[in-house]
């Protein structure tokens, strides 16, 4: 080989080594080694309560390769965390647990992506999903007669979640239904009113329980429990519904127009005042009046207002005057009663009143 040819070969070899050195170095911007796709180093995790209606949140875990994006896919599995099936449209980092998930476990698969590709990792399954705790949709209600010795009953109200059991408590409150304190040992759905309840209101609370937990709802307050004499504890006008035995009504006074009634009178207007509990006016009492003897005047009766009075208009009938021109008095039997009560007992009263009858 000639010296000139050998020199040429050496020069070409040296040039090749220089080019390889330049293009083979990472970071040169040319044909160097590229970054790897993401690799998971700590598995994704799920936080939140595995219960119907709750929201679970997926954390992507940790990855090599500096991922630039994450994608999520939630799956429903059997109670042991196996036999998993993807949940349609559950592709965000959060998932609201559905009724169909009850009795199953859930897992999430995270896909991490960078410029070189993608990698996947799956979380551990959640605990078995529980049904939602009960939710009250209509509050409990208390029924029964509000008087000493009577028994009140609380209804459960309405609930979602198919409660499997109910628990009860009763509270004694102020007349406005506030500042309540629980009544000791009152833990049934019935409650017997005691003298300690006089002047107070009562509330009942119902706690509903199922496999998912418990929730409580409370009734509206009752009316104020009357004292042992049947009278409400407040002052002023008494609503007839708040009067209970042994309270009695009283016809405090009665007047008639025209006064005096004459033998030419064709209608009369009676005004009757009804009271109870030491002279307090009673609103809502039903009042009727019947002349004695019968068949002199007749009308439909009336109902007392806030001042305790009722006005009754009655028309003359064939029996007036009862004693021809010599009748001096018109006797009237006035009857007042609590609506729906007994006319011979309960919260009622009767009184005979008389009005002057003049010839003309």
Description of the molecule:
It contains 1 helix and 30 strands. The termini are far apart. The strands form 8 sheets. Strands 19, 20, 22, 23, 25 and 27 form a 6-stranded mixed β-sheet that branches. Strands 21-30-29-24-26 form a 5-stranded mixed β-sheet, with no helix packed on it. A 4-stranded antiparallel β-sheet has the order 6-5-8-9, with no helix packed on it. Helices cover about 5% and strands about 45% of the residues. The relative contact order is 0.09. It has 3 domains: about 80 residues, Immunoglobulin-like, CATH 2.60.40; about 80 residues, Sandwich (Immunoglobulin-like); about 120 residues, Immunoglobulins (Immunoglobulin-like). The radius of gyration is 45 Å and the shape is rod-shaped.
Question: Which oligomerization state do the chains in this entry correspond to?
Answer: single chain
DSSP strand tally = 30
Derived structural class? mainly beta
Distance between the amino and carboxyl termini: 170 Å
Q: Which radius of gyration do the C-alpha atoms yield?
A: 45 Å
Portion of residues in beta strands equals: 35-45%
Give the second-level CATH assignment, the architecture of the largest domain.
Answer: Sandwich
| Shape field | rod-shaped
Any idea of the CATH topology of the largest domain?
Answer: Immunoglobulin-like
Residue runs with pLDDT of under 50 for 5 or more positions: 1-33
Number of domains: 3
Instruction: Write down the CATH class of the largest domain.
Output: Mainly Beta
């Amino acid at each position: 080989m000639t010296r000139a040819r050998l020199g040429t070969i050496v020069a070409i070899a040296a040039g090749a080594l220089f080019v390889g050195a330049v293009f083979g170095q990472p970071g040169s911007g040319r044909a160097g080694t590229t970054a790897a796709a993401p690799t998971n180093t700590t598995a994704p995790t799920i936080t939140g309560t595995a219960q119907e209606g709750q929201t679970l949140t997926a954390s992507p875990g940790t990855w090599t390769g500096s991922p630039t994006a994450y994608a999520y896919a939630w799956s429903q599995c059997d109670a042991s965390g196996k036999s998993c099936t993807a949940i349609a449209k559950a592709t965000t980092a959060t998932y609201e647990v559905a009724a169909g998930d009850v009795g199953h476990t859930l897992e999430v698969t995270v896909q991490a992506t960078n410029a070189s590709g993608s990698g996947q990792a799956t979380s551990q399954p959640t605990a078995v999903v529980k049904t939602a705790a009960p939710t009250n949709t209509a509050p409990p209600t208390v029924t029964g007669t509000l008087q000493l010795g009577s028994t009140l009953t609380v209804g459960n109200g309405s609930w979602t979640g198919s409660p499997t059991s109910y628990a009860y408590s009763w509270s004694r409150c102020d007349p406005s239904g506030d500042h309540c304190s629980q009544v000791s040992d009152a833990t049934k759905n019935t409650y017997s009113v005691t003298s300690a309840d006089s002047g107070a209101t009562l509330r009942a609370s119902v706690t509903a329980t199922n496999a998912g937990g418990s929730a409580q709802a409370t009734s509206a307050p009752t009316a104020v429990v009357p004292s042992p004499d049947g009278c409400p504890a407040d002052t002023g006008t008494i609503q007839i519904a708040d009067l209970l035995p042994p309270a009695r009504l009283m016809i405090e006074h009665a007047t008639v127009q025209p006064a005096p009634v004459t033998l030419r009178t064709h209608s009369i207007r009676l005004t009757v005042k009804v009271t109870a509990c030491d002279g307090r006016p009673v609103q809502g009492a039903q009042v009727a009046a019947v002349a004695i003897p019968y068949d002199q005047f007749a009308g439909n009766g009336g109902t007392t207002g806030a001042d305790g009075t009722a006005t009754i208009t009655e028309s003359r009938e064939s029996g007036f005057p009862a004693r021809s021109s010599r009748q001096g008095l018109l006797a009237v039997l006035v009857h007042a009663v609590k609506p729906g009560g007994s006319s011979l007992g309960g919260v009622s009263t009767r009184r005979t009143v008389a009005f002057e009858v003049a010839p003309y």
